[in-house]
């Protein structure tokens, strides 16, 4: 296991890229007070170590006609390794599922889905999720209002950060 220390400049780079991944290297370098070449070297190191996983564009679901955001709790009748894998593979094929988390507690999986309307949510639950082998229970909760939504991790740029990386 390798250790990597992120200094304040690395953390500033990560914060800036989390805020706007479309920044050019020159713009990024200017914002973190570096010249472009060392800035690019640092960004490449952050990508190579896996700290920067990927860069994406976030769309506004409402503008795209996707009005319903829901959380669905799924319980399986049994939890052998094969059933868990089978469920996960089936869920990965459903484009409406934005997140799938294997949980402890009252349910086995918690899904976040985004669909056009309640009819589409019903179709997803009744015709897709409930037909996955091993599913024994489904409970859904509709989001009335999204109060906050973040994609950026909070990184304090006033201090360094030491990380353990898998080699």
Task: Characterise this structure.
The chain has 167 residues and is α+β, with helices and mostly antiparallel strands. The protein contains five helices and six strands, in the order βαααβαββαββ. The strands form two sheets. It has a four-stranded antiparallel sheet. A hairpin with a 6-residue loop joins β3 and β4. The mean pLDDT is 95.
Mean pLDDT: 95
Kindly estimate the percentage of residues that lie in beta strands according to DSSP: 15-25%
Could you tell me how far the N terminus lies from the C terminus, measured between alpha carbons in angstroms? 5 Å
Characterize the biggest β-sheet: 4 strands, antiparallel
The percentage helix is 25-40%
Count of strand segments:
6
User: Looking across the biggest beta sheet, what order are the strands in?
Assistant: 3-4-2-5
Q: Structural class, please?
A: alpha+beta
Elements, N to C (H/E): EHHHEHEEHEE
Query: How many helices does DSSP assign?
Result: 5
- The Cα radius of gyration reads 20 Å
What is the overall shape? elongated
